[in-house]
Amino acid sequence: MRKHLTTIILKTFAFSIPISMIGLYMLLDPIDPKKSDLQGLAYGLAIFVILVLSLTSATIYLNLLPRVRNSVGYSFLSFFALPFLSAVLVINSFGEVMGQLAIYSMMVMPFFLLLGFYYWRFSQRRSDSI
Questions:
Q1: What value, to the nearest 5°, has the Cα angle with vertex 68 and ends 66 and 71?
Q2: Which one is predicted more confidently, 100 or 90?
């Protein structure tokens, strides 16, 4: 079970970074390097935000406890509560750096969509074993 939970965190981290990078590349206008020193800021912030979300998603190890694993609410909170709060805090702290909510959503949405997919698979696996 511990190996499965570790795999969820690592896969979510590994797949959300390239998806966010591709999304940011398509979303951002090409910036002339002569006009801006901050050309790669959005990409660096995206990697930082995904790293923070991945570290805070370590609460999914609470699913090793039977009380959390057998409760749908506790299991859902162990997957999403701390990453969601950290995403809100990071977005608030970087509020004036980028200035657009679409950029932030492109940073965090792939992570949460992948984590939601893995939560759904985890809950299906849990319901099959009950």
A1: 100
A2: 90
Q: Are 102 and 27 in contact (CB under 8 A)?
A: yes
Interatomic CA distance for residues 54 and 110, integer angstroms: 12
Whether 98 shows a pLDDT value over 60: the answer reads no
Place of tokens 């390239």: 18
| pLDDT-above-70 percentage for the chain | 82
Residue whose tokens read 């980028």: 98
DSSP one-letter code for 65: S
Question: Helix axis angle, 101-129 relative to 41-56, nearest 10°?
Answer: 30
**pLDDT over 90 percentage in the chain:** 45
Average pLDDT over residues 24-37: 69
Q: What span, in angstroms and rounded, lies between the C-alpha atoms of 45 and 5? A: 26
- Give the count of alpha carbons within 13 A of 28, CB side only: 23
In one-letter notation, the amino acid at residue 12 is: T
3-class DSSP assignment, residue 125:
helix
Sole residue written with tokens 């590994």: 14
Residue 24 phi/psi, 5-degree rounding, is: -65, -40
